[in-house]
């Protein structure tokens, strides 16, 4: 009997458990509306390192080692680490993995990496390939800006629809046993491209992918938007969130408006914090999922959540060659009947 | 009952089948000693495109669509595509996936991507998450040189231990049924770093990772080197191959010399073709595995093969910040009792 249902969805019968989650953010994120939900708030976004890249690496290393400690496990208890980030050659993840004695598969899904890593990790638990697996990702405002856009020193103006890359990292540790929030479905996305080519318009570039994955998740599972307490896209920002909700209703008749939030819109007070359309980056959905959402699931506020991290598969080389920005989104549903203090 | 054995290895009980494999190479690879084993040899390494990046993308797209055709399947029969490449943001894979209606997970394992994608794809088949999955990767000499080293126009001299990035792409299509070569074990690597920092010394950077994964594969499975007809590392080149064989014997007592080849050394006539230590790049182990090795398995020449693609997790940003080059290697064993014409 296949665990595949519909066209793009895996149904997890053994319901892999999220034993622990850990989040770390920079000072700006730590001054935002979700500040009470993050495990660690850095006072300095260099985290005592010599470069922003090394700071980012230290953050993802930090959440991985902390989530292992929280779960009362050892590094050698972890069978797989699935991780990726925004930097060329996912160097934050690679260099963090270098310090860890954990079998490692590197991923690249841009800002969709949290649910990409979570979906694959859940399959390794369900398939009995692992007793414990970690899904992790990170991003850093300053390492991203200079790689994808302009060096900060250039002082370029930000457009109203532009987003602010979150400085943060998140990790979830999955296992087979215990009374924890569990993963019930994973819907894997396809790459969608509607011709957006400006690196300031990532929400617009990713929205069609979010719509496609959400639509397919509902079709494959037979669920409706109201079956969820919360549907959280990754980092579409204010602009992308509106497009997603409208397109999904108009094209496919699914109205998610009552249960819908976007992590990128939620993480900052966009007006006061001057982040325009909101947060972005792998770290955005990672810290909101591992911080705000996971903790509210434990508290019983949310019982059924659909996480939909969204990635803009942007490449400066491709953009210089006239290419548009393809998007992708992966959905993972998390459920928990209990309440934990 | 867990399918995990030892510390880093998954044992596949249902033995996922490699239904078909496809390879494409550039003119230089097509003039080398393995030329008779590749499915497509390009006469022009631009493949009719405007840039080397677009040419690389067309190559990986080509092997994916061709391997589906060979297996007499349709795009919509494929449940997962696992792919990655060397370009920043794995843009070849992302842009190829954009043209395909296949749920897609992007990977980054540098030149270890062939066995990374194969190992994960095999788990999705064994775990009944997919009926069919594709593992694919690519690299291109000219897109890699300018990204990782110097623009070709610069005309920099190549060192004796330097390697030549293979222009090529390979794909394997996995399924559950039929009389085909099957995957029996996957040993996932850990990141290893012995302090090599020159981008001309990739074989040396990757050798410790290859040694570590090979040692662990033998320990976890209880197999000996002589249980295999062929052990093929990915792209260590002449220099890295010698280090690997020597270290493995000296440190752990495993003598693989009688069954050992390196895809990077084998793909070129290094002296005549002026490729110094040999080939490298994701495409190197991909085309040798999908071309030479897979076809010789079908012919009955090899009955038990261990593929060990090796990745140098090199980042120019990290190198400029004084970092060394970490390496990783993943092993996948393929077995076939039959003979196919």
> Roughly what is the average pLDDT of chain A, rounded to an integer?
94
Percent in helix of chain A: 25-40%
Give the overall form of chain A: globular
Largest interface: A-B, 64 and 64 residues
Strand content of chain A: 15-25%
* Computed structural class of chain A: alpha/beta
Biggest sheet of chain A, in brief? 7 strands, mixed
Helix count, DSSP H or I runs of 4 or more residues of chain A: 9
Through-space gap between termini of chain A:
38 Å
**How would you spell out the order of helices and strands of chain A?**
EEEEHEHEHEHEEEHEHEHEHEHE
Low-confidence spans of chain A:
none
The whole-angstrom Rg of chain A is 18 Å
- Give the spatial strand order of the biggest sheet of chain A: 1-2-10-15-14-11-12
Oligomer: homodimer
């Amino acid at each position: 009997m296949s665990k595949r249902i519909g066209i793009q969805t895996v149904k997890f019968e053994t319901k892999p458990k999220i034993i622990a989650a850990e989040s770390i953010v920079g000072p700006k994120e730590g001054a935002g509306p979700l500040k009470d939900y993050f495990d660690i708030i850095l006072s300095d976004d260099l985290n005592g390192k010599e470069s922003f890249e090394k700071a980012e690496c230290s953050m993802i290393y930090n959440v991985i080692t902390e989530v292992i400690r929280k779960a009362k496990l050892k590094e050698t208890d972890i069978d797989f680490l699935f991780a990726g980030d925004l930097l060329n050659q996912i160097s934050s993840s690679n260099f963090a993995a270098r310090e860890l004695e954990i079998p490692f598969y590197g991923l690249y899904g841009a800002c969709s990496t949290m649910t990409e890593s979570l979906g694959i990790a859940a399959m390794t638990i369900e398939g009995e390939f692992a007793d414990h697996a970690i899904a992790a990702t990170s991003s850093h405002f300053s390492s991203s800006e200079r790689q994808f856009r302009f060096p900060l020193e250039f002082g370029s103006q930000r457009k109203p629809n532009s987003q602010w890359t979150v400085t943060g990292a998140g990790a979830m540790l999955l296992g087979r046993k215990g009374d924890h929030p569990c993963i019930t479905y994973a819907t894997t996305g396809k790459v969608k491209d509607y011709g957006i080519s400006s690196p300031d318009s990532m929400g617009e570039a990713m929205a069609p992918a979010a719509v496609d994955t959400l639509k397919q998740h509902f079709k494959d599972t037979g669920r409706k938007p109201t079956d969820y307490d919360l549907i959280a896209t990754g980092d579409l920002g204010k602009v992308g969130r509106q497009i997603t909700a409208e397109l999904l209703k108009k094209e496919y008749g699914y109205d998610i408006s009552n249960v819908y939030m976007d992590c990128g819109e939620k993480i900052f007070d966009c007006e006061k914090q001057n982040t325009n359309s909101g947060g972005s980056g792998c770290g955005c959905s990672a810290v909101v999922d591992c911080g705000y959402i996971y903790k509210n699931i434990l508290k019983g506020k949310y019982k059924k959540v659909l996480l939909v991290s969204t990635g803009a598969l942007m490449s400066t080389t491709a953009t210089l060659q006239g290419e548009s920005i393809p998007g992708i989104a992966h959905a993972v549903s998390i459920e928990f009947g209990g309440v934990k203090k």
